[in-house]
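re: ur question from yesterday

yeah so i grabbed the chain u mentioned. its 205 aa long if i counted rite. heres the sequnce exactly as i have it in my notes:
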Amino acid sequence: MFKAFDVEYVLFDVETTGLSPIDGDRIIEIAAVRLRRGEIQDRFSSLVNPRRPMAAQGIHNISEEMVKDAPFSEEVLPKMVEFAAGACLVAHNASFDIKFLAYELALKGRKLRVETPVLDTMKMSRSFLPYLASHRMESLAHSLGVTVKTTHRAMADVEILVEVFKRLLSMASDYNIHQLQDMITHFGVEKPNFRIVNMPQPSLF
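ran it thru and got these structure tokens back, copy pasting raw so excuse formatting
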């Protein structure tokens, strides 16, 4: 029996002002879907006011006008943590998303639980489909027959990720991967441990 199929997963994606939270970049949108036995159980999404200018609008099409009245991360991130409670987190190129999530939580003196696993579907793709020229989400989705309509908005990307993950999960048993611990061993990502002291909070809006 493929026991990993019975696990509750929270697939998530973040859109950000740039590439490095340590250099001051922040989350501007987060979305997540809770998945069990291949069925969506719940959804969570929110824009986030980053309190700083945004340089990546051409990528995610989120303007400063769109986020100026959005809640700050200290309101949004605890809701995300509550939404993900007890589940295994999943993201594509997960080290990027989990880095931002962990950093935003650290700004408020919080962190993800030690026992919360994080899986990377890019690692799964590279293992199961090594012949692909690209393992970027859009390319991977096309190769797996997943329809791609809108990308680079958090919920749209998560909805693509759900279909991609289900297809990758169905391949796991062919590689003698049957339980969640097997998945973590092969495709897990370590959560960064940020320690932030007296970090100033700039105000943009």
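noticed a couple things. The mean pLDDT is 90. also The chain has one domain: 3-187.
anyway ttyl
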